[in-house]
Amino acid sequence: MEKENNNKIKRTFTGTVVSDKMDKTIVVKVENTKIHPRYLKRYTVSKKYKVHDEKNEHKVGDKVTFIECRPLSKDKRWKTVQ
Question: What top-level class would CATH report for the domain 2-80?
Answer without folding.
Answer: mainly beta
